[in-house]
Amino acid sequence: MASRSCANFLHLVSGDLLDIPQTPRALPRVMTVPGIISDLDSCSSNDGDSDVTSSGCRERKIIVANMLPLHAKRDGDTSKWRFSWDEDALLLHLKDGFSPETEVVYIGSLKVDIDVNEQEEVAQKLLEDFNCVPTFLPHDLQKKFYLGFCKQNLWPLFHYMLPMCPDHGNTSIESSLDFSSTALSPHQKYRTLPVRDEILRGLLNCDLIGFHTFDYARHFLSCCSRMLGLDYESKRGHIGLDYFGRTVFIKILPIGVHMGRLESVLNLSSTAAKIKEIQKQFEGKKLILGVDDMDIFKGISLKLLAMEQLLRQHPGMQGKIVLVQIVNPARGFGKDVQEAKKRFMAAKKINDVYGSPKYQPVILIDRPVPRYEKSAYYSLAECCIVNAVRDGMNLVPYKYIVCRQGTPAMDEALGVKPESPRTSMLVVSEFIGCSPSLSGAIRVNPWDIDAVAEALNTAITMPESEKQMRHDKHYRYVSTHDVAYWACSFTMDLDRACQDHYSKRCWGIASIIKSPSAYVISIIKTLCDDPKNTVFIVSGRGRTSLCEWLAPCEKLGIAAEHGYFIRWSKDFEWETSPVGADLEWKKIVEPVMSLYREATDGSSIEPKEIVNRGQHIVEVKPQGVSKGLVAEKVLSRMVDGGEPPDFVMCVGDDKSDEDMFQSILTSVSNPSLPVAPEIFACTVGRKPSKAKYYLDDTTDVLKLLKGLATATVSKPRCLPLIKLSEALSVLARCDSDGVPTWEIVVVGGSRKSEG
Q1: pLDDT value of residue 688
Q2: Which InterPro entries does the UniProt record give (predicted)?
Q3: Residue 706: exposed, middle, or buried by beta-carbon count in 10 A (0-12, 13-18, 19+)?
Q4: Nearest to 540 by CA among 562, 516, 568
């Protein structure tokens, strides 16, 4: 493996590796033994050839995939390797979604085995000519990785087959480029994989994980929840999964085709010539087209059975319809390939029963088919059927729609009027990824032979106006959601997902301990010691814990259990809220909660005198108890005592803090106040809130409190009324189970004391 591709990514991203016009760009030696890189770097960091210069700041995108988008062929005369772009590879066309100035670097394996003695030369050539960094896996590792782990474990499992041999499980750990293009199976099947946790955790090291459909994403989130105990939430249309204090974003967007590439093939003269040839060959007949890989899951045998059923149930179709089945060459030579080939024998049976010397109902093309020939069949097919029993995205329907639309150049070559209506019909399996995107297609269960046969009949006999309407609907979607749109959308979401990394800041709070630190206590005590200030802690915790934690702050007011119990200072007794003083309701509620606890493994009931709703918990409380009422009570007591505040600041990030914001905004409009105080409602973090201002994180909250404490010591003319809502507490926000702990309120700067 080219060591620079894995050991020096920072230089690769920053542009320090590739922009060296004076000398050939040097790659270090290759990895021939997993984990051991020979001759790591041939040049010292102090050499003149060191990769430390750059011609400029140029945006770069690095695309890592299982296979490079390249064709490789050894020259028969020189015995040298020759490479060319694989124009059919979507990876190659992702760059169309980036800005023209963006440099794209591809990292992955080659489709051929390169001798160890040639790897250095090949790696240098690919880097210079194609901006590709090859990873040369040892042959035995490549075999275990692809034919063993991927094909024998992941591939059957993701197609809803249980793994047969788990011996190759650790191969995914050795190979850092394992890749699956198929749908993720539900957690009940995925949990049978021996290395299930390793794969999930490997994916969760990403900032953004993309899925083609909602079902795939749902299965992944279910696996993370049930196997790793991770929670996720949706914010502003984006799904975020909390993993070790960082948010892993989930994106759902089907990939598209490359419109320009397909249209360029349609414009070829060879395509027009092939279309005329096929028209003449099947004159007077309607074509049904299938294009599938040599794969037991593509449902080719089921498709043939459906064709046989169609001819049997509708004898009038005999001699008028032809199924052209193109079988793409297999990527490997496993037992599954041989089994798939055996199933194609049904085509011969159908031709023997329903065919004639001049008519074959099934044409099986089992050879490599050039792009122009496929495009010709796409353009002429009355209906395209994709009935895989389980598949990934599958872009065959998209290609069919684009080819049926045609191009002006192709229309001119074939003598078709530009205003001629365009039609297409699709019969697709409900088990493929593109199915949800094609609302005009006829969806079928591929196992239901009768239903598939009837769907084919419906597609062929459907009125032209209906076909045109469905085609126009599909073409609008396919043409606007192409591969460039997909790449651009993912780039934008990736930038958004990584914006926290750019500022090098940590936004997580899960590591904060339950009890406040001595530093926080000292700040609170400083605020409390000034007679002009009234400081309150508002918390969901019980009175005992709060009294123990905050004992040094004798003048501190405490509102425990979300304000049900209030103590104005250490010299006062606890007051109980008059609302819901009768706790007889607990006798009714506790049995109900016990039933849910028994049905929810790992849950528990925490008895309190009164509780409220928080994060990651279900709480039961009487009505009329909230943080907002605490704020109202504090302000009301100040006004009644003849000491109205000069201004009010409220800081918090919890949902319950919104009640506090609203209460303060309402209370300051009280006509009993001589002058309405200034209000600074402030939430923690950027999110929708009733607060007008925001602080970025707990560090900023602590800085704010420290600044107020410093101002208190220096005796300014006006001191603030502050409420630090616990929800994001530098003051001890939550413990490991996410239960809110406590908040702060500071009231001060009254006009009476100022005079």
Answers
A1: 78
A2: Glyco_trans_20, HAD-like_sf, HAD_sf, Trehalose_PPase
A3: middle
A4: 562
Quick one: which of 5, 89, 99 has its CA closest to 491? 99
d(CA 385, CA 457) in angstroms, rounded, equals 12
Per DSSP, which regions of 350-474 are E strands?
A: 362-365, 383-386, 426-429, 442-444
Q: Which two tokens stand for residue 656?
A: 């319950």
Contact 740, 734 (CB under 8 A): yes
Mean pLDDT for the stretch of residues 704-724: 65
Q: What is the mean pLDDT of residues 180-191?
A: 60
Q: Is residue 487 part of a domain?
A: no
Exposure string of 37-50, with b = 16+ CB inside 10 Å and e = fewer, is beeebeeeeeeeee
Mean pLDDT for 509-535 is 75
3-class SS shares of the chain: helix, strand, coil, % to 5: 40, 15, 45
Q: Alpha carbon of 639 to those of 448, 577, 632, 645, 750: distances in Å?
A: 77, 20, 11, 8, 9
Instruction: Give yes or no: residues 453 and 531 share one domain.
Output: no
How many angstroms separate the CA atoms of 353 and 56, rounded? 70
Same domain, 189 and 107: no
Give the residue, 445 or 187, on which the prediction is more confident.
445
- Per-residue pLDDT tens over the stretch 224-280: 988 998 988 887 678 899 888 888 999 988 889 999 999 999 999 999 999 999 999
Question: CA dist 225 to 222, 426, 569, Å?
Answer: 5, 37, 44
Q: How far apart are CA 207 and CA 497, in angstroms?
A: 6
Angle at 628 between CA 626 and CA 633, to 5 degrees: 105
The CA-CA-CA angle for residues 360, 341, 69, to 5°, reads: 105
Q: Name residue 221's amino acid.
A: L
Residue 680: count of CB within 10 angstroms of its CB: 17
Residue 208 counted as domain residue: yes
Edge-first strand order for the sheet with 426-429 is 362-365, 321-328, 286-293, 383-386, 426-429, 442-444
What secondary structure does DSSP assign to 313-355, as a single string? Answer: H-GGGTTTEEEEEEEEPPSS-SHHHHHHHHHTTHHHHHHHHH-
Residue 703 vs residue 463, higher pLDDT: 463
The residue among 136, 165, 195 that closes a domain is 136
Query: What dihedral do alpha carbons 534, 537, 538, 539 form, nearest 10°?
Result: -170
Q: At what angle do helices 396-405 and 464-480 cross, to 10 degrees?
A: 110
Are 245 and 274 in a shared domain? no
**530, 719 contact by CB (below 8 A):** yes
145: left (phi over 0), alpha (psi -120 to 50) or beta: alpha
Structural domain total, the chain: 4
Helix (H, G, I), strand (E, B) or coil at 209: strand
Q: 545 with 616, same domain? A: yes
Residues 118, 158 share a domain: no
Domain that holds residue 419: 259-480
Same domain, 70 and 149: no
Which residue in 450, 733, 451, 500 sits closest to 442, CA to CA? 451
Same domain? 369 vs 425: yes
- Return phi, psi of residue 45, to 5°: -65, -15
Which residues are within 8 A (CB) of 280 and not within 5 positions of it... i.e. 6 or more apart? none
Among 206, 200, 199, CA closest to 247 = 206
Residues 431, 542, single domain; the answer is no
Identify whether 575 is part of a domain.
yes
- pLDDT-based confidence at 524, cuts 50/70/90? confident
Distances (CA, A) of 315 to 239, 287, 306, 353: 52, 17, 14, 12
